[in-house]
Amino acid sequence: MFKKGTKLYSIFTGKCPHCHEGKFFKYPFTIKPSKILKIYDNCEVCNQKYMLEPSFYYGAMYVNYGLSVATFVAVFIIAKVLLGLTILESFIAIIIVSILLTPFCLRLSRIIWINIFVHYKKKK
After folding, report:
1. What Pfam family is a match, any one (predicted)?
2. DSSP characters for the chain?
3. Which candidate in 41, 60, 61, 100 could, as Cys together with 113 as Cys, close a disulfide (CB 3.0–4.6 Å)?
4. Structural domain boundaries, residue 105
């Protein structure tokens, strides 16, 4: 779907942003709170360090905020315009969808954040 060497490949496959081969997250997608955000210290293939500096992933909160707002707007438009729900029902739909998508958005925001700073390098 996405070509190796692109940011989208790394983001949607959960691979190392530097080599696109090593895993980024320690566990496959899970809803267990203690395992959702666990990442490796380094890539097992290219040894890219994932924690670039102390508190590096605090910036991912801004990415998560953007993803959340986009989700809220999309759910509201679908609920209100397409399904014809009331305002209260639309907000309930937003709350339910946001709770269900929280683990996915947290992981997605972290890998998007590191992809902003780490670039792909082909093997020689």
Report:
1. DUF983
2. ---TTSHHHHHHHTB-TTTS-SBSBSSSS---TTTTT-B-SB-TTT--BS--STTGGGGHHHHHHHHHHHHHHHHHHIIIIIS---HHHHHHHHHHHHHHHHHHHHHHHHHHHHHHH-------
3. 60
4. 7-117
Q: What is the total count of domains within the chain?
A: 1
Indicate if the pLDDT at residue 31 is higher than 90. no
Q: Encode pLDDT of 39-68 as tens digits.
A: 999 999 999 999 999 999 999 999 999 999
User: Half-sphere exposure (CA, 13 Å, Cβ side) for 45?
Assistant: 13
Average of per-residue pLDDT across 78-85: 95
Is 121 a residue whose pLDDT tops 80?
yes
Mean pLDDT, all residues of the chain: 93
Is 92 part of any domain? Answer: yes
Q: Does a structural domain hold residue 24?
A: yes
Position of tokens 């890539």? 43
